[in-house]
TrEMBL record:
Keyword Ligase (UniProt): yes
Swiss-Prot/TrEMBL catalytic activity: 2-formamido-N(1)-(5-O-phospho-beta-D-ribosyl)acetamidine + ATP = 5-amino-1-(5-phospho-beta-D-ribosyl)imidazole + ADP + phosphate + H(+)
Main localization category: cytoplasm
Name this polypeptide is given: Phosphoribosylformylglycinamidine cyclo-ligase
SUPFAM superfamilies hit by this protein: PurM C-terminal domain-like (SSF56042), PurM N-terminal domain-like (SSF55326)
Molecular function terms, GO-annotated: phosphoribosylformylglycinamidine cyclo-ligase activity
InterPro entries referenced in this protein's UniProt entry, alphabetically: PurM-like_C_dom, PurM-like_C_sf, PurM-like_N, PurM-like_N_sf, PurM_cligase
Pathway: Purine metabolism; IMP biosynthesis via de novo pathway; 5-amino-1-(5-phospho-D-ribosyl)imidazole from N(2)-formyl-N(1)-(5-phospho-D-ribosyl)glycinamide: step 2/2
The enzyme's E.C. designation: 6.3.3.1
NCBIfam families referenced in this protein's UniProt entry, alphabetically: purM (TIGR00878)
Keyword terms of this UniProt record: ATP-binding, Cytoplasm, Ligase, Nucleotide-binding, Purine biosynthesis
Record's subcellular location: Cytoplasm
Length: 372
């Protein structure tokens, strides 16, 4: 049995440094405040974040949309490189871009950071990244929590999670009920791997014998720089498109499960989307991962986004204008395929019917990927 210190056992001696936590809050306050508009009341440090929802009175039937998520094992890369600000943008993207899929405008977000030891500068970097992501998304960061877990997590370990709430007018709700045969499927480019599939990617990196500082000619940068590329945030663009295009039927955020599985979730039963793999140039990172690990192509596309981060389903009369609007906002977009009747093809590597508990439509992948 260890002896008790003469001054007694303190919280700090048990591994929790409340002064470090207070310093982290001071370091992040200004970044958080920049996400606050006049609707946010109380500032940083209150027990609960307050948001003036008076604007919802203008809605006939406001529907609240909520989402929560993390960034998966991409956080291992951030810790290894000791670069902690970009992971915040990843977190915001993973949360708010799920909300906009139904046409909702994100309003507020909160974050949660669990760590083995509070390093004020590191926590502040993480939250600054979250705040910058919130500014990009047009959402207020109204609260958060940093929890120190000595004995449960290693001193330099941490994980992040977030949650957000948005609102959509019921009559403007996007989803499978709006999708029609003949609609066009439009792809919106990803910024890279985003924040899914990193268990596979890290295994490939290990198998290839690469370090995070290894330069890959096809990528034009190091492995670490490529893997830490922040997730693109689509929320403001998607909200704008939803407001501008009456013929917009649905969005699909391409995250875990890949393009086909996530697109199938927003299609109604009885309809199928045909997607041509050669409709775009496959970004180099996906070819590099595939070749380095001899990853089966069907496994790769059911894990990674393959260069498509968001999908829109739209009336054919508005498809070209929507593609142009996305490009004008700095997000390349192109036609992936069309929606038609489900031909009843058997489910297999190229045919996905429903996904993630949704008894939805079908996605048929055809052709081969075209290298960039």
């Amino acid at each position: 049995m260890s002896s008790v210190p003469s001054e007694g056992i303190t919280y700090a001696a048990a591994g929790v440094d409340t002064e470090a936590g207070d310093k982290a809050v001071e370091l992040m306050k200004s970044a958080v405040a920049r996400t606050h508009g006049p609707e946010v009341l109380g500032g940083v440090g209150a027990f609960a974040g307050l948001f003036d929802a008076s604007a919802l009175k203008a809605y006939d039937r406001p529907l609240l949309a909520s989402s929560t998520d993390g960034v998966g094992t991409k956080i291992v890369i951030a810790r290894a490189l000791d670069v902690h600000d970009t992971i915040g943008q990843d977190l915001v993207a993973m949360v708010v871009d799920d909300i906009v899929v139904c046409g909702a405008k994100p309003l507020v977000m909160t974050d949660y950071i669990a760590c083995g030891r509070v390093v004020p500068e590191r926590i502040a970097d993480i939250v600054r990244g979250i705040a910058e992501g919130c500014e990009m998304a047009g959402v207020a960061l109204v609260g958060g929590e940093t929890a120190e877990h000595p004995g449960v997590m290693e001193p330099d370990d941490y994980d992040v999670a977030g949650a957000a709430i948005g609102v959509v007018e019921a009559s403007r709700l996007l989803g499978p009920e709006r999708v029609r045969s003949g609609d066009v499927v439009v792809a919106m480019a990803s910024s890279g791997l985003h924040s899914n599939g990193y268990s596979l990617v890290r295994r490939v990196v290990e198998h290839a014998g690469w370090s995070l500082s290894t330069a890959i000619p096809e990528l034009g940068r190091t492995v670490g720089e490529e893997l830490l590329e922040p997730t693109r945030i689509y929320s403001q663009l998607c909200v704008s498109l939803a407001e501008s295009f009456e013929g917009l039927r649905a969005f699909s955020h391409v995250t875990g499960g890949g393009l086909a599985a996530n697109l199938a979730r927003v299609l109604p039963k009885g309809l199928a989307a045909s997607v041509a793999r050669d409709a775009w140039d496959l970004p180099a990172v996906f070819s590099v991962v595939q070749a380095a690990g001899a990853v089966p192509w069907n496994d790769l596309e059911s894990t990674l986004n393959m260069g498509v981060g968001m999908v829109a389903v739209v009336d054919p009369a508005e498809a070209d204008a929507l593609i142009a609007a996305s490009a004008a906002a700095g997000v390349p977009a192109w036609t992936l395929g069309t929606v038609g009747a489900d031909a009843g093809l058997p489910t297999g590597p190229d045919v996905v019917r429903g996904a993630k508990g949704v008894d939805g439509g079908t996605v048929v992948m055809s052709g081969a990927y075209r290298a960039s």
